[in-house]
Amino acid sequence: MVAPSSPFDRTLVRAGMGWLGRRYRVRFDPSLFSRTGFLAGDDARRLGELNAALADSEARAIVAARGGYGLARIAPSLELGPLVQHPKWLVGFSDVTALHVEAARVGVMSLHAHNVAGLGPGDASARDAWLNALERPAPTTFERLTVYRAGEAEGPLAGGNLTVLFMAHAAGRLRLPRGAILLLEDVSETSYRIDRMLTALSQSGALADLSGVVLGEFTDCSPGRYAVPTSEVLSERLGLLGVPVLAGLPVGHGRHNAPLVLGAPARLSARDGTLTVDAARDA
């Protein structure tokens, strides 16, 4: 377990650690309880902790304590060679999107799923889904999604938190696979800021080679002073890409956060509103 981003609620994380400890040998450096301003310790501490975990040949998974902010500060200095030689699950979401981006750059799949803090209060079904994704990756189909733009698409699943993807693009770190189905979610952003990020990503060409888009939850994303709903912005901006777009995936900062294998082959049908992620094929 690592804390590469913000400080965390110790009660929630200790509860998650306790649950994980019933099944796995959980290792962590006590320094992960550090705090430096809005970070879980300074950059040197967080980078050293994460690089040590990446180099640990016995580790089968690296799970983030929580998201927040901070991974983008250390992402360019990560030592990913050991991950390529001995792949292991990188597990988390939100700010951990920055780590998923780095894994994708070197061709390693990763798991967009609850951080440890989210496992603390997790219900039995959510915890079972998390364990199954980690231990027994299998094809998963989501049905009755909302169609924003019709069509069908196939490609590797990529993406995560919109704000973090936008930061990764600004830093020159974002490399979306050709033909990818892009997953997007976010929290606490106003609709005009979402418009700004999507517009910049589109105009830059970063989204030019997508085959489709699937939207998770945009939690507490307000319409702002101009009262423009986030759903309208997403539908209008993404509709201009000319690819099928589905919304309503139970992924993100809301009550449900279904685990998804990033890099796995995915199929999207905006005729019947389904997304299938075939994690078993390459996991």
Please specify the SSE layout and strand pairing.
Elements: H1 10-21, H2 43-55, E1 61-63, H3 71-74, H4 81-85, E2 89-92, H5 97-105, E3 110-112, H6 116-119, H7 124-135, E4 139-142, E5 146-149, E6 152-161, H8 162-170, E7 181-187, H9 191-204, E8 212-219, H10 230-239, E9 245-247, E10 260-262, E11 265-269, E12 274-278, H11 279-282
Parallel strand pairs: 1-2, 2-3, 6-7, 7-8, 8-9
Antiparallel strand pairs: 3-10, 4-12, 5-9, 6-11, 11-12
Q: If you had to describe this structure to a student in words, what would you say it looks like?
A:
The chain is of the alpha/beta class and 283 residues long. The protein folds into 2 domains: 126 residues, 3-Layer(aba) Sandwich (Rossmann fold); 144 residues, Glucose Oxidase, domain 1, CATH 3.50.30.60. Helix content is 34%, strand content 21%.
